[in-house]
Structures are given as structure tokens and as C-alpha cells.
Design goal:
Layout lengths: L2 H45 L4 E6 L4 E7 L2 E13 L2 E12 L4 E8 L14 H15 L4
Antiparallel strand pairs: 1-2, 2-3, 3-4, 4-5
Length: 142
């Protein structure tokens, strides 16, 4: 193997390891320090409106389930998605439509626009705003 080939292999190996290490550290920290506290606050406010909210943080993801009258009306889960510059949080949303006969699944980045920011830049306010955007669109009052 020529020297240039070794250099190129080392570059990509080191780059991939760095991105993987950052992803492993960044997402669990984001879930613990940003998403969980945001949803804990949201849970209290939703309870004032007759909703039961379950928040489950599992290291590399967090799931929020909203129930009314014992039936799930909305589910929101944050995972990480790998981009060339690192990992970013995105949401997977699930809710029922047409009197519960049809399940709708949607994916959404927490921020709209170019995905050229770091996971550390995403705030609790952005997480709650994204959750509410989807919740208010999906769930009918009553």
C-alpha cells in the first residue's frame, strides 16, 4: 500500500471514530440535560388540561406519550440522526386519525432549515415548540 493510501485510510478511520464518539456522548447528554427537563415541565402543564403524560428517557432516545381518558392520543419520540458533521435530534410522531381508525406517522427535525448546527445548540424551548407544533396539528380539542 502506498503512503498516500495509508494517509487517506487513516484520515477516514480517525474521522469516523471522532464522529461516532461525539454521537455517543452528545445524544445521551442532550436527552438527559435538555429533552427530559423540557418534557417534565410540559407534563405538568398538560396535566392542568386533563392529559396524562408519560416521559421515558432511555439514554439515546426519549418517548413522550399523551393520554386522555386512558387512550393514547399522541406519541412523540426523539432519536438521533447521523449527519456528516455529527448527530442531530429528530422526532418521530405517531397519532390516530379518523376516530382512531388510521395511525399517522411523521418524522421531523427539531429545527427546520439547514441541518448544519451542533446538537449542543438545540434548546429545550425548541424541543417543546416542535412537540407543540405537531401536537396542536394532530389533536383536536375536546
Amino acid at each position: 500500500m502506498a503512503d498516500w493510501e495509508k494517509r487517506l485510510d487513516n484520515f477516514f478511520t480517525a474521522s469516523n471514530e471522532t464522529v461516532r464518539k461525539e454521537a455517543d456522548a452528545g445524544l445521551p447528554r442532550f436527552i438527559r440535560d435538555v429533552a427530559v427537563p423540557a418534557f417534565e415541565q410540559g407534563r405538568e402543564k398538560m396535566a392542568e388540561h386533563g392529559r396524562e403524560v408519560t416521559v421515558r428517557g432511555m439514554g439515546s432516545s426519549i418517548t413522550v406519550s399523551v393520554q386522555q381518558g386512558g387512550a393514547e392520543e399522541f406519541s412523540y419520540r426523539i432519536h438521533g440522526r447521523q449527519f456528516t458533521h455529527g448527530i442531530l435530534p429528530y422526532a418521530e410522531i405517531r397519532y390516530r386519525e379518523r376516530k382512531g381508525l388510521k395511525i399517522i406517522r411523521v418524522e421531523s427535525m427539531i429545527r427546520s432549515g439547514p441541518q448544519d448546527y451542533a446538537i449542543e445548540d438545540v434548546t429545550a424551548e425548541e424541543v417543546i415548540d416542535n412537540f407543540l407544533d405537531h401536537y396542536l396539528r394532530a389533536v383536536k380539542p375536546g
